[in-house]
């Protein structure tokens, strides 16, 4: 009984943020496609007309820099069973985040030097992974693509790690390759998981043949991704060197703050800490490569995603583009990787408690502040829905829902006629 109670308390504490965010979705989200989400309507139109080939082609088409085939396919399948209830998609976003968190829990249990680290750091991870700072991911069904990519990629890295011993090497390699393929066709930076996959492959001494097969899978995925790919023109903003620096560090620090200056400062601190930790683990403590391959791979994925996002968004939105709420699920992984590394390095409880005492005020403060932002956006989406359900919604209301008023007018007629998405 004495052993059971602490474990039960830990489970309750780490599940509380997930349960809370799911409750927020149920009570405050709006059953309505918003912005990019409306682009799925043509798929439902073609399915309704039994034009299955055309519907499949629409799922495959490039969206901005992405080819979100798998998350969109998933959304359409769920939509067919739920009359495209967007709230179900949002709730599934939370479930996907929970699945990703479960991988980190597994890794932490396998690698932490002290059990106390689990009780100290896992609740912090939970608060960050289910933070209202990701309000777009909790209030837009469309953002399932980000959760899809992260889960697939993180699971792929976990399968390649030596700590996962429940399957043969061949089976793990095939499963990891399929997951990286799914990540690639979820969001534009998903292909990076193929690259960071080389870290556990080399660290865990996979054979040359298996590394060659991994490379062939990567090349095939990349070739398929860029088949008939259209590169977007750069934005209108004139970019200066300082803008690049601000964007890079703001992206990393965005999991703590949506203020540009604060996010940049936090991003610099986090980056310096991560470099020092990797140096201590590898050079001072002489940890084997396979022991740090998983957190290191996640860090490099975030940094590469940062650079890719910078390339596509800096000239459009400036440094503030790094603070987009949807990216927080990616930037949060950097801090999570640091915590996983700390669990392997810190051997005394004082250091663990001190680290938690430094982190918690920032995490909790950001959580509280961003609840206000989430509530504001939830009210705004509710007002847009109230307008759209009217027999003749005004022009401004349609434009709020989607920039192309002509398209959204036609799509709105369809969803109303078929009673989809709560219309």
Key descriptive features of the protein:
19 helices, 0% strand, globular, mainly alpha, 73% helix
Please give a structural write-up.
The protein starts with a helix and ends in a 5-residue tail after the last helix. It has helices at residues 4-28, 41-48, 52-60, 69-82, 86-111, 115-129, 135-139, 144-160, 169-184, 192-196, 198-203, 208-225, 241-253, 260-284, 289-317, 328-345, 349-388, 395-401, 405-418. 46% of the residues are buried. With 423 residues, it is mostly helical.
Strand content: under 5%
Instruction: List low-pLDDT spans.
Output: none
> Any idea what the radius of gyration is?
22 Å
Number of helices: 19
| Main pleated-sheet profile | none
What would the average pLDDT be, to the nearest integer?
90
Helix content: over 70%
Report the order of strands and helices. Answer: HHHHHHHHHHHHHHHHHHH
Amino-to-carboxy terminus distance: 51 Å
Helix and strand content put the structural class at mainly alpha
Q: Please state the overall shape, judged from the principal axes of the Cα atoms.
A: globular
Q: What's the layout of helices and strands?
A:
Elements: H1 4-28, H2 41-48, H3 52-60, H4 69-82, H5 86-111, H6 115-129, H7 135-139, H8 144-160, H9 169-184, H10 192-196, H11 198-203, H12 208-225, H13 241-253, H14 260-284, H15 289-317, H16 328-345, H17 349-388, H18 395-401, H19 405-418
Brief summary of the model shown:
The chain is mainly α and 423 residues long. It has 19 helices and no strands.
